[in-house]
Amino acid sequence: MKQFKILYLASEVAPFAKAGGLADVTGALPKALKGFNQEIRLMIPKYKFINERKYILREVIRLREIPVTINGKTEIANVKSAFLPDSKVQIYFIEIGDYFNRPGIYIDPKTNEPYSDNAERFAYFSKAALETLRILSWQPDVIHCNDWQTAAVPVYLKTVYQTEPFFNGVKTIFTIHNLTSQGTFDTAKASEIDFDESQTRDGGMFNKDGQLNLTKAAIHFSDFITTVSENYAEEIIRDDKIGFGFGPLLNENAEKFEGIMNGVDYSVWSPEKDKFIPNKYSKEDLSGKEENKKALLMRLGLEYKPDVPLLGMISRINEQKGFDLVVEALDDLLAMDIQISIHGEGDKDLLDQLTNYAKKYPNKLKLNFTYDDKMAHLIEAGSDIFLMPSRYEPCGLNQIYSLKYGTIPVVSAIGGLFDTVDDLDDESNDGTGFIIEKLTAKGIVKAVKKAVAFYKKKDKLVEFQRRIMDEDFSWEISAKRYLDIYDRVINE
Q: Which spans in 158-262 are helix H?
């Protein structure tokens, strides 16, 4: 297998900084690529909350006080180095001015609003990453960028750095993780981040719906674009609601656009190895799953009832994830012999509605609106059923985690959910979960009823759990596809 020099850029990487599923992906794919003997390095911003002592961040003498100039304004970058836990993947943390010396990644926790200078923050991070490469004298074959926060890199390489010999031949890959966040700003921001302001006019490469759109910029300037599942790639082009109007542009660039299913790091998300659950278990011995259920119910303050299934949800609580439909369905869901645990942050109105239902059903519904990684692992291990009624879901990871933990997934037929869960045929026992046929409150209730009925068939359930725990969505498969793309782009 060919060896490439890969710089992997992201705004969040687990376990250092995490706002969502992006961090799980960016913390796992580089390790899988390293496993194929690739020379890969990561760069992320050095956020205020990253624990330098815990993760053993080290000073790099020559990476101190790097001047980074954008729109005539110079900020000073200082870069420290560490390794991804349990790997030999080197990661650089870029501290630049006061841009990342804040409590939140993208959003100010005090106001719950995005930082007003997010465009500048991540433009400086992107340019500082390129300047760091020069000082290291390490020229990558490819720079793999993730979401709008790194979109300035492909733009800068073909504009600001176009005549720089050091970057000659460096290719860029841009991965779209979720088009709900595109990096949209007032067009006046373009000149402030060294983008050609003329391209923010109607019809310009940076203009979408009258705004500066960093995702659109990256699509134009990258050498290849990927997204996180095959089905989502098709949906973006086919369905304007899911594609947010990017369909025609991506269709025009179809020869350099592919969907590659995200994988899972089974060293982190596996009941045999999970360091966050009190009882490890395997498909050969499932007894620990029930013990984890008892531990979860105790933590939730719910009574353990051997034959009553526990339904779990870990998600951003918003309409994209179908929570308005969940709220509408709750009376019917809780009329069943069932308990429900919902875990995640989200929209205040939906949180308030859920809180009212929790008061109405204190012995059946429990909520936790502060994300806790340990709790997330326990919900996967301790739940009997996992519900994901998303309106769109580029990839989704929790349905894949659920399979590995022997937890019955109930999902909408969308994006990566459709790619990873096959509807269960009760007669043949083929399939890996239950598909919500029609995404309405009634459709959710109907699918959950099927899952609850199946849960009661204990002889079939154990056989099913052992089978779904054998499903393999490891990163090695996806990493090979990325390596193929790197090879094609580098040698085109």
A: 189-192, 214-221, 230-238, 240-243, 247-252
Whole-number Å distance between alpha carbons of 479 and 455: 35
433: closest CA among 403, 401, 397?
403
Sheet of 310-314: strand order equals 365-368, 339-343, 310-314, 385-388, 408-412, 434-436
Question: In this structure, are residues 249 and 282 in contact, taking their beta carbons and an 8 Å threshold?
Answer: no
Tell me the C-alpha distance between 224 and 409, whole Å.
33
Contacts of 296 (CB under 8 A, 6+ apart): 310, 341, 378, 379, 381, 382, 383
- Averaged pLDDT for residues 110-132: 95
Contact assessment for residue 111 and residue 24, using Cβ atoms and an 8 Å cutoff: no
Helices 373-382, 287-300: crossing angle, 10 deg rounding: 130
Return the C-alpha torsion angle 357, 362, 363, 367, nearest 10.
70
pLDDT tens per residue across span 455-488: 999 889 999 999 999 999 999 999 999 999 999 9
| Beta strands at 434-436 and 66-70: parallel, antiparallel or unpaired | unpaired
The string of pLDDT tens digits covering residues 351-409 is 999 999 999 999 999 999 888 889 999 999 999 999 999 998 999 999 999 999 999 99
Q: What is the pLDDT of residues 226-239, one digit of tens each?
A: 999 999 999 999 99
Q: How far apart are CA 326 and CA 347, in angstroms?
A: 14
How far is residue 433's CA from residue 441's CA, in Å, rounded to a whole number?
A: 19
pLDDT in tens, 305-318: 999 999 999 998 99
| CA atoms of 243 and 414, how far apart (whole Å) | 13
Q: CA–CA separation, 492 vs 484, rounded Å?
A: 12
